[in-house]
């Protein structure tokens, strides 16, 4: 099925940034995509319009009950001026999984894909070409019905906005120091930790604040039941190299099924490196550190791709990993994924999707 | 300290509802209160303005990371035309506790009190006078900075809106049937369950949907760690009468410190009825039902005040409580609190605050 998405071009284009050193998610392009939902009518009126403020009733449910989901992915400009997106279908599938968990009506996945493509093509001149830069794509749904009753909204907006992002590693990959969080919990099985919804991020702000004050970059989240199994690092999935095997926490209901996480697992398998998805306790990590088995650790996510962990602080003990330097495997995974994203490396799984209108 | 809050009156007043049978939170008054926050400047520019849509950048943090808190309280019109609010200071204190948990800058509690009073007085003609009706007051904070980085916002809006609410029990108090939720979890200790923030409500929608489909009014939430200790019912606190003693779950970090909950505890103590705040398992409730010890159960919250529980469904067993009728104690607590709220009953604790400008 082909969708016709009307495009209203801006008459007042903004100046594009002359460099790409701005903070993440601060510079937005000239246009955005909107799709409305009304109960009884379904999703309707897809359109690309100039980037502009939205008007909402102060009783809109998103302000009060947080019924919202989002996604994050990137578009890249190749040396030969093609536009590539990395596994957009995975993000669109997850968007609907999140919608289901948050009682938001499902989106037409083909329409979402077409909207992504249309919007990025309209703003293609915004895609930066310097090494490591990209166009960050943020699809999101908000509940807009102006009613204070606690129940799923009867009105929504699905929107996509685009942000120009500089290189995450403009000054080279620097392993970060991590505080293993003993007090706060991000999510618990039975909750919404495996959905990409606003409340999970709000819940993590306080722990991040306190870790920052203590001098750490991020927190490592432990599970909410036993307070010992590793879940995520900041808002990323996390991997540990223990001897010859790479271990990452299994998808247990409270962990996000990250697209980069999934890609790393597939790459490791492709390289015949043993990888395990299983419960992994902080005690096991401490023990592996003592015995010399723990040689690398890294977070995975769309923004950083790979974020090497230089040290973990747990119960007043500092575990330095790989002498605080970026490990060989972390670098190999980073190079492989960014190479696929930029069209410069082998793409054995067909993950890079060239952006052309159907 | 006295605050001067500028008031801009509407030039297009809305028609007031001719009856009070509308659904909760659907009819709003003519005005609203706004206060802005900018980092470096603090909270500034308090004002009462005509009720109107707000304009936000689509990147505003509230849409993406759910950094928001709210409160709910009511104003009542007495027979002699005085306006009473019920323990507004408790709500304002809790608002700042929620702000702290969500990394939102604290509000000046005196200014918030003055804003409540000013706004309600401006819209005093909207306060309904029929039995059981009231003016629902919804203060809330939203993060408005248009930046996609996951970090506390540098800009916020604090707003208050007012909604005319009909009698919750227009057709008499009807005990409700409750589904004890085995799969979904509302919140866990270490999370944000004890803050009044949007994500807690979003997390509960799916379970409520499924319970509604099964024919139940609400869910009873069990704890996320052991999956057996009782936490809340729907978005209310919960009490059980076991023999001569009333038991309610202790404030363990994942339960909201409800104003009505606190008021019920104080009233029971005032009446020399033993009341315990402690861990309370569903197994204990099932056993108490079997032995005949469980004679009443009710939820407590601002909207309903008291919501009697007629039955609990747990592991395919239906526990009918008090023959499904409203119990004597439930009725006594309801009458005492609503009497204080309307100024018709003894107010031993000075909970009813008459609304006059300072």
TrEMBL record, chains A, B:
Q: State what protein this is by name.
A: Branched-chain-amino-acid aminotransferase
Q: Which UniProt keywords apply?
A: Amino-acid biosynthesis, Aminotransferase, Branched-chain amino acid biosynthesis, Pyridoxal phosphate, Transferase
Q: Which domain of life is it from?
A: Bacteria
**Catalytic reactions on record:** L-valine + 2-oxoglutarate = 3-methyl-2-oxobutanoate + L-glutamate; L-leucine + 2-oxoglutarate = 4-methyl-2-oxopentanoate + L-glutamate; L-isoleucine + 2-oxoglutarate = (S)-3-methyl-2-oxopentanoate + L-glutamate
Q: Which PANTHER family match?
A: BRANCHED-CHAIN-AMINO-ACID AMINOTRANSFERASE (PTHR11825:SF44), SUBGROUP IIII AMINOTRANSFERASE (PTHR11825)
User: What is the taxonomic lineage of the source species?
Assistant: Bacteria, Bacillati, Bacillota, Bacilli, Bacillales
CDD domains tied to this protein: BCAT_beta_family (cd01557)
Per the entry, which co-factors are needed? pyridoxal 5'-phosphate
Looking up SUPFAM superfamilies in the UniProt record yields: D-aminoacid aminotransferase-like PLP-dependent enzymes (SSF56752)
Q: Which GO terms describe its biological process?
A: isoleucine biosynthetic process; L-leucine biosynthetic process; L-valine biosynthetic process
Signal peptide (residue range): none
Q: In which pathway does it act?
A: Amino-acid biosynthesis; L-leucine biosynthesis; L-leucine from 3-methyl-2-oxobutanoate: step 4/4; Amino-acid biosynthesis; L-valine biosynthesis; L-valine from pyruvate: step 4/4; Amino-acid biosynthesis; L-isoleucine biosynthesis; L-isoleucine from 2-oxobutanoate: step 4/4
């Amino acid at each position: 099925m082909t969708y016709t998405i009307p495009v209203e071009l801006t008459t007042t284009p903004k100046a594009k940034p002359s460099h790409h050193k701005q903070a993440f998610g601060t510079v937005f392009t000239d246009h955005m995509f909107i799709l409305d939902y009304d109960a009884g009518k379904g999703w309707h009126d897809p359109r690309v319009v100039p980037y502009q403020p939205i008007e909402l009733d102060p009783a809109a449910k998103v302000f009060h009950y947080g019924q919202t989901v989002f996604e994050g992915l990137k578009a890249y400009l190749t040396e030969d001026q093609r536009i590539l997106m990395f596994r957009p279908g995975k993000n669109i599938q997850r968007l609907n999984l999140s919608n289901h968990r948050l009682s938001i009506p499902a989106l037409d996945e083909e329409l979402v894909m077409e909207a992504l493509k249309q919007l990025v093509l309209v703003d293609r001149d915004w895609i930066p070409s310097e090494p490591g830069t990209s166009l960050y794509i943020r699809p999101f749904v908000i509940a807009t019905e102006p009613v204070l009753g606690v129940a799923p909204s009867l009105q929504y907006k699905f929107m996509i906005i685009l942000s120009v992002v500089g290189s995450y590693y403009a000054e080279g990959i620097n392993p970060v120091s991590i505080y293993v969080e003993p007090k706060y919990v991000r999510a618990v099985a039975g909750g919404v930790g495996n959905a990409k919804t606003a409340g999970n991020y709000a819940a993590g702000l306080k722990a991040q604040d306190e870790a920052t004050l203590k001098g750490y970059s991020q927190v490592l989240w432990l599970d909410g039941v036993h307070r010992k199994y590793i879940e995520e690092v900041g808002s990323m999935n996390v991997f540990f190299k223990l001897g010859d095997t790479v271990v990452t926490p299994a998808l247990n209901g409270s962990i996000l099924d990250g697209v980069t996480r999934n890609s790393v697992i597939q790459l490791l398998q492709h390289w015949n490196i043993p990888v395990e998805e299983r419960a992994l306790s902080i005690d096991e990590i401490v023990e592996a550190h003592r015995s010399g088995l723990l040689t690398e650790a890294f977070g995975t996510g769309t923004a950083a791709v790979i974020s090497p962990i230089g040290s973990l602080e747990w119960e007043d003990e500092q575990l330095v990993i790989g002498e605080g330097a970026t490990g060989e495997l972390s670098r190999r995974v980073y190079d492989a994924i960014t190479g696929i994203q930029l069209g410069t490396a082998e793409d054995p799984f067909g993950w890079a999707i060239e952006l052309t209108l159907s």
